[in-house]
Amino acid sequence: MNDDARTPPPDADRPPSTDGRDGPLVTRDDEDRIAVLTLDSPANRNALSRRLVADLRGHLADLADDESVHGVLLRSSARVFCAGADLREAASVDMVETARSLIDLQRAMVALPVPVVVRLDGPVRAGGLGLVASADVVVCRDDVTVALTEVRLGLAAATISIPLRHRLTARTAADWFLTGRTVDASAAREAGLVTHLADEAGMDAAVEAVLEDLRAGARQGLTVAKGILTADLLADFDSDGDVMARISGDLFHSALAQERMAAALRR
Predict the structure, then answer these.
(1) Which pTM value belongs to this model?
(2) Residues 77, 39: contact at Cβ < 8 Å?
(3) Is 1's pLDDT higher than 80?
(4) How far apart are CA 25 and CA 32, in angstroms?
(5) What is the pLDDT of residues 87-116, one digit of tens each?
(6) Cβ distance 58 to 24 under 8 Å?
(7) What DSSP string runs through the chain?
(8) What is the distance between the alpha carbons of residues 11 and 241, in angstroms, rounded to a whole number?
(9) b/e map of 72-89 (b: 16 or more CB within 10 Å)?
(10) What's the rounded Cα separation, in Å, for the pair 106 and 37?
(11) Residues 36-82 pLDDT 10s
(12) 75 contacts 36 by C-beta, under 8 angstroms
């Protein structure tokens, strides 16, 4: 990967925000060998804007060299974890480059030496499922829903297909990718996307149990085990990433998708 992409850009070079905020859209807190990364762009439901992707990528670059960390917890400050692509931004930027950035972000999650745990307290749509699929462990509230809604906008789940194909059964992938239907948490667990389910009252305890297990592991063992588990997925990112980014970007720039995205924003 490009070494420059591993360094968080200075504020002057960061992409403009689409949610009206100048501050970081992803924050980091450290809690006893666990780095907690919080998506904090509630105005657009943590849409995958260039700014949010850059902020999260920067934190992952820092963590790649932090030998004090045994794991990463990725969560949202508001109930919606991620709404997918930033449709307002998609009308005015090079979406091939945006897709490449998302490929790079997902790969960075997979390549991170230590495990990534995702906490889902609320819905995830479209591109947000790429973050979920790129994690090693997913703890999900039992009333959460997910959906790959791209086909309804004339798009396809291209950039996120790489990790999703490693998590989902072939029949489930066909169902979700082609129908765009909303899926409940129980079905997401059966499909292989989600690791653990908990009700609202039990989420804190369920997440903490996973983090305690990571703290109990020796970092050397964690990093080698993760490397074994992710080798095939990393190879697929390297072989398929650019093709998927071009497919995604070209679809976003198509007249049909632009028309349908504009209609969705008007609603």
Answers:
(1) 0.91
(2) yes
(3) no
(4) 23
(5) 999 989 999 999 999 999 999 999 999 999
(6) no
(7) --GGGGSPPPGGGSPPPSSS--S-SEEEEEETTEEEEEE--GGGTT-B-HHHHHHHHHHHHHHHT-TT-SEEEEEESSS--B--B-HHHHTTS-HHHHHHHHHHHHHHHHHSSS-EEEEESS-EETTHHHHHHHSSEEEEETT-EEE--GGGGT----TTHHHHHHHS-HHHHHHHHHH---EEHHHHHHHTS-SEEE-GGGHHHHHHHHHHHHHHS-HHHHHHHHHHHHHHHHHHHHHHHHHHHHHHHHHHHSHHHHHHHHHHHH-
(8) 28
(9) bbbbbeeebbbbbbbbbb
(10) 15
(11) 999 999 999 999 999 999 999 999 999 999 999 999 999 999 999 99
(12) yes
Find where tokens 């307290």 sit. 121
- Give the position of tokens 């949610």: 19
CA angle 121, 122, 124 (to 5 degrees): 125
Length of the chain: 267
Q: Report which residue type is found at 179.
A: T
